[in-house]
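Please review this one:
***
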Amino acid sequence: MKYNLPRQRWKFYDRNPSLVNNLMTNLGISPIVAEVIVNRGINSLEQAQAYVNPEVVNLPSPIDEFPDLVKSIEILKNAIAQGQKIAICGDYDADGMTSTALLIRALRHLKGKVDYAIPSRMKDGYGINCRIVEEFKKEGVSLVLTVDNGISAYDAIARAKELDLQVIITDHHDLPPKLPPADAILNPKLLPKTSPYWGLAGVGVAYVLAVCTAQALGKVKGLAKTLLELYTVGTIADLAPLTGVNRRWLKRGLKLLPNSDIVGIRALSMYAGVNGDKKLLNSDDIGFKLGPRVNAIGRLDDPQIIIELLTTEDEEVAATRALQCEQINGTRQNLCKVIEQEAIQLIEDTPINWQDDRVLFVINDNWHHGVIGIVAYRLVERYGVPVFIGTYEEENPGSIRGSARGTEEFNVFEALQFCDDLLGKYGGHKAAGGFGFPRENLALIHSRLRNFSHECLIPEYLKPLVKIDTKISFTDISFELLKEIDSLYPWGIENKSPIFWSSEVRVISQKLTRSGEHLQVTLAHDNIPLKAIAWRWHQYFPLPPMIDVAYKLKEHEWQGKKSIQLELAGVRSSSPSSLK
């Protein structure tokens, strides 16, 4: 029988036995976990100690790191003291909405007069624009705060200055060639890459500004915990790098969330099934349960729902808004499935020659651009090449709006810059971005992206990447090992959850889930059986009877009984040469 196995490239970290032994001896950890730590870029005992316990690191003050932070605090203090109206312009993703809610809570606590606006995904697209600026002016606003946007909005910020508005930009996206003429700019991309603040998401920059302003006014008490909770949700949901201050602050924040002071987070957690008896949440609880429910609103509905959810003190309002999140997230899931299936059919039936192009560029006229970014990510997982996916705008069929997701060796923002003269509006960072352009530029942009991809991608990069930490046996797998791994949380971007592998594993049983989308398998190795799940692997069913498997370790609970389950990340045919 011919089996359809995933097209993948397995990449193994270089071994460093002497450092592994050093960490085992001095930190009292297992060789498996020592190897995982070394694979996270750690190259000394001192770095490992900081990685295991980020609280031991002496952090520089953000005031010493961000050049415009003192100026920003003074502008805010003066606006509050003079009773000026402050307006926040956020974004419609989880980062932008949690940032907006964080600053609303902070400014209300500091007795500021605050309002907000979030651009419409459907009508405005990403970021502050001249229409919003002019409306702020009509409403008597004196100070504009952007969160999670603004760094590329030169025209809108210039218009704000023409109208005599003060502007503080707080953003984390990559820098354009020309910075907007704001009164102050807080963006970690203006800092050296060595700064512990360099990886902050938009909500992290808002958190720094809010906490430092509250400290300057002597009013941190009663505020810090709620702000840290919002920072935690927004940072993980935005897939920010879990390094530097993010790692330190998230370790604190994840302990707070099971007993959140924010009624909206408690209501959302109940619907997402993460309230339970947990002493701390993990990044998967936010990344796969809370975050998608927040993001779904910005993708398909009115972001005001999330702002109310995260700023209300009324439990009834919170419950109503959380229910809306749950329902809209269900709609989002169904839309994603339909669009993903249509995209795959379009790619394979046309056919689109993505291997020669070294990029997947796919446009359709009836896709909802609120969810195509998620579909782009799934297509990257399936095909292993950068994906640019777009749809025609309803109000303006002459324009195309889209999303992009990259691969390890491909920088999305640089690719968009490479097409700068052909695009209208665009922004993003290495891993993801958004863009818009006139439909007449479609062929030219496709050609330009193809050229860019040929410059940075060689043929062997055109497969989904599985980065593997170390080889283990099923005899090594235990709750003790799982506990040791979990102590290194949070896992995420730039601190990926470890992937192990085992060779010559027997497939005892396998079946598709009731939905027909996922694959459930029972595997055996060294006479030890373990259950495994492979998300969205229906196309690889059935697997051959003997395989090499790459996997993550997960705790699984069913009817009060806990077990260890494998989450499959990779499969390949077993062979006598599987000795890596």
In short: The chain has a mean pLDDT of 93. The chain has three domains: 9-13+466-573, 62-327, 352-461. The radius of gyration is 24 Å.
